[in-house]
Model the fold of this input.
Amino acid sequence: MKILCAPDSFKESMTAGEAASALAEGVRRVFPEAQCVEVPMADGGEGFTVSLAEALNAELVKVPVVDAFGADARGEIAATKDLAVFEIASAVGIGMVEEKDRRIRQMSSAGVGMLLRAALDRGVSEILIGLGGSGTNDGGAGMLRALGVTFLDAAGNELNGSPEEMENLESVDVSKLDRRVFDVNIRIACDVDNPLIGPKGASAIFGPQKGASEEDVEFLDSVLERLATVSGKEDYIEMEGAGAAGGLGFALVAFLGGKLERGIDVVVDTVELRKHAEGCDFVFTGEGGIDEQTLMGKTPAGVANVAKEFGIPVIAFAGKLGKGADVLLEHGFDAIEPIVQRVSTLEECLRDGKKNLADAAERTCRILKIGANM
Done:
C-alpha cells in the first residue's frame, strides 16, 4: 500500500512536516509495510516558508530586517541552491504589531524589500513569495525603496515610502533599482483578486483590520492611486491581485515583473505533488480547521484536486470541523475525519495535536483494512 501524506500545518499545534509524520505514524501502526510519502504543504498563508523548507529539505536562514515601523526584526528565508522562499509576514506581519499600535499611515513594507534583497544575494534563479498576513498598506513603496527606488516630493526631498509621506509624491526614480530582480523568476502566492483601489481595493477591504479608520481608508486609497499614476503604472490599478497585501501585489508585478499565482498552485508545482501522487492508493491531507471556506484555495482542496486527476481517494483530517464542512464531500473528498475524540480544552488539543492526528490516521486505516478484507 502506498499513501501520500500531504497536510498543511495545524496552527499553533504542529508544522506541516510534523503533521505529515504523524499521519505516516498512524498508517504504519496498521500497515507496517506501507509506503508513506510525506509531502508537507501550504497555500501561501502562515507557515508557507517552513512548509516548503520541510518539503524541499531547504535551509532556513534568519535575515536582519525592519518591521513596519522601522524597528529591527528578524525575517526568515528558506533556500536551496536555485530557490528562495519567504512570506512577507515574517517582516511586516500584522501579528507583529499590537492592535492598539497600528498606525497605518506610518507603516512601511521596507522589510519585504530587505527579504527580497537577501534572497537575491543567494544567487538563486527563482523566488517564491507568500503574500498572506501583511500589516501594511503602502502599495509596496517601502519595499521598492529598500530595493533602490527613490520617491521625491515637489521640492526634491526623498520620501520614506510610508503613506504619510507618499501623499506628497511628485516623481519616481527607478534608475537605482536593484537590476538583479529582472534576472530571477519571481512567483507570488496570492489568493485574493482585489484591485489596487476602490470599494474592493486594498484599503477598503483589508485596511480596517490593519487599524484604518474610514478617514484612513479614503486617504490610503488616494495615496495608492497617486503612486500608480505618478509612476506611470495606471494600467495595473485594476489588475486582479493588485490590492493583495496592501498593494504589494501591485508593486511586485508592476515594478519587478513578478507573476501572481494561486498559492496552492505554486506549492503543488514546487513540491512536485503530482509526481508524488502517482501510484498512490490513498491521499491523506488536512489542516487545523476545515469548513466550507476550505474550497476557496486552501491546501486540502488543492491536494484533493491533484488526487482526483489520478482517481485516488482522499481523506481529510481536521482539528476542527466548521460550518459547511460536509460540502467538501461533493468536491473531491471521500471522507473527513476530526482528530479530537473527547471533550478537551483548546490547550489540550494544541498540545496533543500530533498524537491525536496519528491516532485518527490509525482509526481510519483500521476501517480501510476491514474494507480490504471484505
The domain at 2-40+282-372 is CATH 3.40.50.10350 (Rossmann fold). The chain has two domains: 2-40+282-372, 48-263. The first strand starts at residue 2 and ends at 5. The first helix runs from residue 16 to 30.
